[in-house]
From TrEMBL, chain A:
Name of this chain's protein: Transketolase
Cofactor(s) recorded in Swiss-Prot or TrEMBL: thiamine diphosphate
Transketolase-like pyrimidine-binding domain residues: 10-175
Gene3D superfamilies: 3.40.50.920, 3.40.50.970
Keywords recorded for this protein, A-Z: Thiamine pyrophosphate
Family affiliation: Belongs to the transketolase family.
Automatic annotation (TrEMBL), chain B:
Lineage, broadest ranks: Bacteria, Pseudomonadati, Bacteroidota, Sphingobacteriia, Sphingobacteriales
Pfam families: Transketolase_N
Protein name according to UniProt: Transketolase
This protein's record includes keyword Translocase: no
The Transketolase N-terminal domain, residue ranges: 18-270
First and last residue of the signal peptide: none
Source organism of the structure: Pedobacter metabolipauper
Keywords recorded for this protein, A-Z: Thiamine pyrophosphate
SUPFAM superfamilies on file: Thiamin diphosphate-binding fold (THDP-binding)
Annotated family: Belongs to the transketolase family.
Keyword Secreted part of the UniProt annotation: no
Classification via InterPro entries: THDP-binding (IPR029061), Transketolase_N (IPR005474)
Cofactors, names only: thiamine diphosphate
Amino acid sequence: MKKYTYTEKKDTRSGFGAGLLEAGKNNPEVVALCADLVGSLKMEAFIKEFPERFFQIGIAEANMIGIAAGLTINGKIPFTGTFANFSTGRVYDQIRQSVAYSDKNVKICASHAGLTLGEDGATHQILEDIGLMKMLPGMTVINTCDYNQTKAATIAIAEHHGPVYLRFGRPVIPVFTDPDQKFEIGKAWMVNEGTDVTIIATGHMVWKAIEAGEKLAELGIDAEIINIHTIKPLDEEAILKSVKKTGCVVTCEEHNKFGGLGESVARLLSTEFPAPQEFVAVNDSFGESGTPDQLMTKYGLDSINIIEAAQKVLKRAKK
Amino acid sequence: MKHTIKELEDIAFQVRRDIVRMVHGCQSGHPGGSLGCADFMTALYFEVMNHSADFTMEGKGEDLFFLSNGHISPVFYSVLARSGYFDLSELATFRKLNSRLQGHPTTHEGLPGIRIASGSLGQGMSVAIGAALGKKLNKDTSTVYSLHGDGELQEGQNWEAIMFAPFNKVDNLISSIDYNGQQIDGPTEKVLSLENLQAKFEAFGWHVINSDGNDMDSIVKALHYAKSLTGKGKPILNLMSTQMGSGVDFMVGSHKWHGVAPNDEQLKTALDQLTSTLKDY
């Protein structure tokens, strides 16, 4: 098992804030919009540097999406910022008609996704957003795993033409990816090469997959760990190559098991290379109030759950 | 004036013929609101707006128009075709399979002149505001126009946009309301009354003007006046009285013609009332 260490913990949303500032410096067409959550989205640095390129919309997310769509018509590259729930479920039809169907170059940037939003509870903890967004034709869906990856992804999506949903979160978590990485949309990251079981993880679950991989190694199980940060378009080649080698797969995501990364992998495998799969995901449930760690434990999203899923799926492996 | 009022009225006659023929041709679509806005759309595209049929999405240095009430696509398609954005013959494909003239306007099929999809109501003002803000960032002094149904104002997103525009001094935006008092289920007053629209917009900080949307002279004057009000710190709202079905006697003023196509006999009756001024497509 390849060794991963970290010296600090940071929130992925701060990676977004840093990436947004960088993207703004790289391209004068980058503009930002926020629906009364500037601090939560870490947009202050961009606003300070480019006050004329920032639009405070107020608590009016539908209007924000529409204004962003309109700004693209003048060649602008708008980044909208609010919580994941208000970025997707609340404005689904606005995204569908004014952004996706209209092929507008809007970057929908969503913080506080999933259970790790914590104490605010289920009203704010969306676990359906990946599903909502991946169903929209032409939408790119990205869920990043640490500060550095989020920063790199934010810079990369500014250079990509087309609507993007970028999902990140609230809690501070280990920073373990390369600070100088080049983020490639749609390209899986091989975290660890292995032969026994494929573990595919996205977002906050990537670090947990690494923890699980270390434990599995101690148990004599050689796990291949793949980070799928881009859920759509899916890196089918990387997934198929790995599962053809290992013969079984565990998918890990901080999302409802319905509609998430796991289902995308299952769809791919069922048509190309049917293989046993276990889902580490929320079991068709809303969340609740609690600390992020408590919630991840209660809803079965810890490294122990990945270990158990790997052991279970191995028994059904094809080889 | 690029055209006399008489010339504009003649164009609007032909636009009305196009509308009823298009809707009849596919036995589907929304003739009522389209006819009611024929004069406005003609004034906009043939007199008021600075625009080019050599279409670019960005429309740099051009005035832009956004149709929020996308169901009145027939009138939009007719004025676009008659302005040279695409061939007139394409009007015959309206709402048919493989057409660029979808039931509701879309950028998806690449039809020149369309900059946003609309149809699901209430989204157009936000988009128009975004385009207007983009113009300002680009130091482009042209004007952004938008059109909205009155019933459409029941959608909440409008009021987010109506609140945003004056506060942010979006003064390069002229929004018009197709104030015909009708919606699918009946008169707006009975379905969900808009009460005093002028007072509502003024309370939000808009500069409101009134016009008769089925009187070419009134609408041209109103739009020129509206244009003179741009750049003065407030968005402009043209509260435009219209009659649904205007120009076809048996359709006038009734919500029943919101989304129903005329049959062969009704088409003949309608066309008898609408002189062909330009050539039919």
